[in-house]
Amino acid sequence: MLSVSTSIALLVSYLYGSIPTAIWIGKAFYGIDVREYGSGNAGATNTFRILGKKAGIPVLIIDILKGFTATNLVYFVGNYIPGTVPFANLQLVLGVTAVIGHIFPIFAGFRGGKGIATLFGMILAVHPEASLISCGVFVIVLLLTQYVSLSSMFASFMFPVNIILFFNETTTKTQLLFAISVCILVMFTHQKNIERLLKGKESKANIFKKKTENV
Known about the structure:
single chain, mainly alpha, 10 helices, 0% strand
């Protein structure tokens, strides 16, 4: 049975993950619901695509912080000791709860984004070393291709690979299984992107260009 503090932490994680950053920023400063344009997702990628980097950058940062902060709520719950299996397991549960909140936000009719930025914030809290390497992979692929979807898939693939190659001795089995699950989940949620990439129809982020698209 879950303790009161754990239950509260889970609720806070979900509510924190449910903050629809892209929707609120889009409506407040542009009068636009980003879900009505582009991919239809309320995430950083679609925000960059529709509203440009001035909106996309803060959405990206806040969505990452949602996952990072929610995962670190473990430090305020009970007597969990860092470095132990129970501590690592609760980190994962709290982080996943925030990601679920981002995908199905109670504050936005349960229509959110794909959760990639929030997921990155989570894995940054769970395993900072491996996630930073994956972040480097993401940036390199993005600079070379300008495809956020392709960059996300490469980065997610490298996450468990990094753990196996460099951090296997200091990683719990649960964390390793989670890393593998992250890779599988990202590939699954990007099926349509993969199809568009293969057909040459995937949209580029154009992060380094000024927004010229009218919406």
